[in-house]
Amino acid sequence: MNNILIKNGRLVDPVNGIDGRRDIFIHDGVIENVDENIDVSDIKTDISDVDIIDASNKVVMPGFIDLHVHLREPGFEYKETIMTGAMAAAAGGVTTICPMPNTKPVIDSPELVKDILERAKDAPVHVLPVGAITRNQDGSELADIEGMKKAGAVALSEDGKSVMDTLVFKQALSEAARVGMPVFSHCEDKSLVNGGVMNFGDKSEELSLPGITNAVEDVIVARDIIMAKEAGCQLHLCHCSTAGSAVFVDMAHKRGAKVTAEVCPHHFTMSDDEITEDDGRFKMNPPLRSRNDVKVLKEALRDGIMEVISTDHAPHGAEEKAQSMLNAPFGIVGLETSFALGYTELVKGGYLTLSELVEKMSVNPAKVIGIKKGNLGVGMAADIVIVDIDTEYVIDSNEFMSKGKNTPFNGKKVFGRIDKTIVDGKIVYSK
Ligand code: DOR
Ligand code: ZN
Ligand code: ZN
């Protein structure tokens, strides 16, 4: 038997229109009661052993859902495993994660989707895999999309690259629409990259490094929106980093396309002019963009054009990242800093209310993959995060549960430290 009573917290639960003092009683993993005051004595007598969590001066929210993470297992366990990635999620208040299929082997079959689910069965958070669009992510032959859906994949993605052959992409979208699966698009025109390792601009010139222009992203964002509209497929755009992507997504919404878009915390927090040296911790794909792009992305989040915040958590080995941007792999970790960056930059920065941040980090991601989460109403599974939003702290990557310590935010002062994470009524992280 497993009972928790969370008392005296500020409940922020946008689906149920709540932002105020509430107590929550959890029985056997499910929310049994939400009220202004619940006493242990109110609880039915056959329920003994109630753990009481005092959430005074804390915020209680639906656990975050991260649609875009890289867990590296199988194949690159020295960078991360499903277990260490899931522990990092728990430490970041993230109760559901969707790992991308760019592992070794690539997750491109029903058997491999089942293998991920099997490997994840003791993980502290929910792990819902994403299947590849094409076999081995080679871009030519469609994977068994329907089979992967039946095996438990919640979306399809070629993340790490785009499906460059537009006809193959069109066939994938039609098949995804037929079986009712969203496609998560990594938008990057490979033929335009030209060896770029950071944003093209004054900073890339100053560091004498090859640059990646906004067009690399924008042309594929436009193409994918056009193709998804024609195929009637649900499209979700990964890691939008440019002002142009916001323009195209806005246009897509106005034309009735089923398009959602995510922004990663690093892209709304840091611009390329804050890159202090040629070091791998500043390298990710898409890259840190200009100050104007950062501003437009924050406005797009505020205006509801961009509806989801995901991390693109991409752990790598310390030695791999301790190199020039010319040689380091693309990617930074994000699971353990996403809420704090979102709260500090967007809520304290005046772009979103806390309730709107919860929509972007929990409610809307649940809608994208069609799961019954992101809601703390009675009868819902108890996936909950409790956060201290009042005390400033300093990000220290040595404290990360993730094997990856590669972040440009080490030493940054932020608000929003995760206090406790609860998954299906079990405490999986406690500060
Ligand atoms: O920065 C990135 N890292 N971008 C990607 O698209 C792939 C990812 C990875 O797998 O490391
Ligand atoms: Zn990507
Ligand atoms: Zn990714």
Structure description:
It is a single chain. With 431 residues, this protein is of the alpha/beta class. The chain has two domains: 3-60 and 380-393 and 413-430, Urease, subunit C, domain 1, CATH 2.30.40.10; 63-369, Metal-dependent hydrolases (TIM Barrel, Alpha-Beta Barrel). The protein is 29% helix and 23% strand. The strands form four sheets. Strands 1, 2, 3, 4, 5, 17, 18 and 19 form an eight-stranded mixed β-sheet that branches. Strands 9-10-11-14-15-16 form a six-stranded parallel β-sheet. A hairpin with a 2-residue loop joins strand 2 (18-27) and strand 3 (30-35). The longest helix is centred in the middle third of the chain and has 17 residues, at 215-231. The chain is globular. The two termini are 24 Å apart. The model has no long low-confidence stretch (mean pLDDT 97). It binds (4S)-2,6-dioxohexahydropyrimidine-4-carboxylic acid (DOR) and zinc ion (2 copies). (4S)-2,6-dioxohexahydropyrimidine-4-carboxylic acid (DOR) binds at residues 70, 102, 159-160, 186, 284-285, 312, 314, 330-331.
Q: Could you give the topology of this structure?
A:
Layout: E1 3-13, E2 18-27, E3 30-35, E4 50-54, E5 59-62, E6 64-69, H1 82-91, E7 94-99, H2 110-119, E8 126-127, E9 130-131, H3 145-151, E10 155-157, H4 166-179, E11 183-185, H5 190-193, E12 198-199, H6 202-206, E13 211-212, H7 215-231, E14 235-237, H8 243-254, E15 259-263, H9 265-269, H10 291-302, E16 308-309, H11 318-321, H12 338-347, H13 354-369, E17 384-394, E18 413-423, E19 426-430
Parallel strand pairs: 1-4, 1-5, 6-7, 7-8, 9-10, 10-11, 11-14, 12-13, 14-15, 15-16
Antiparallel strand pairs: 1-2, 2-3, 5-17, 17-18, 18-19
Helix pairs in contact: 2-3, 4-7, 7-8
The structure holds (4S)-2,6-dioxohexahydropyrimidine-4-carboxylic acid (DOR) and zinc ion (ZN) (2 copies).
